[in-house]
Amino acid sequence: MIGSDIPGVMTAVSKIAFSSLDDAKKFQKNHRGTISTFDDTLNRTLSDMGSDRKMIMARVAERAKMGKDLAGKFECFKCHGEEGQGGTASGWNTSGFTKRMDTRGKIKEAITKGCPGMHGYEGKMDEKDLHSITLYIWSLRPTK
Q1: What is the 3-state secondary structure (H, E, C) of the chain?
Q2: Angle at Cα 142 formed by Cα 104 and Cα 60, nearest 5°?
Q3: What is the pLDDT of residues 76-130, one digit of tens each?
Q4: In whole angstroms, what is the distance from residue 131 CA to residue 21 CA?
Q5: Using 50, 70 and 90 to split pLDDT, how confident is the model at 69?
Q6: Are 6 and 32 in contact (CB under 8 A)?
Q7: How far is CA 39 from CA 8, 22, 103, in A?
Q8: Contacts 24+ apart (CB under 8 A), 77-80
């Protein structure tokens, strides 16, 4: 199914697979869209990749900007320095920090659970805010 009214996952145009044609027809009655073959759907996916990537990157950048604002609100810069450049705590753009926090999951866990010298924020921020701050910190890592 291509282009139903159900939002796509990381794509502007939804693409949904069904195990039977009958299931696809039932879904189509309620959610519109075009019933298509696997090959048609794959071709549409491949042709949409460029525009979908741009959309995703724009959303990530927007969320990271929100994360910067939230890092200020939660006073992260008090220890991590202005814009996370370093202070009494590690700068988020240093090689040492990048080696220790080499995945977004590790950053998220450190924020949630805390780490030596830093209290955790579990229960003090919602998942969206946590994700935004994580993306902001991740965006500061040095590029190779």
Answers
A1: CECCCCCCCCCCCCECCCCCHHHHHHHHHHHCCECCCHHHHHHHHHHHHHHHHHHHHHHHHHHHHHHHHHHHHCCCHHHHCHHHCCCCCCCCCCHHHHHHCCCHHHHHHHHHHCECCECCCCCCCCHHHHHHHHHHHHHCCCCC
A2: 45
A3: 999 999 989 999 999 999 989 999 999 999 999 999 999 888 999 999 999 999 9
A4: 38
A5: very high
A6: no
A7: 18, 19, 34
A8: 79/117, 79/118
CB-based burial label for 50 (10 Å; 0-12, 13-18, 19+): exposed
Q: Which two tokens stand for residue 85?
A: 């450049």
Tell me the whole-structure pTM to 2 decimals: 0.76
Residue 136 amino acid letter: Y
CA distance 25 to 20: 9
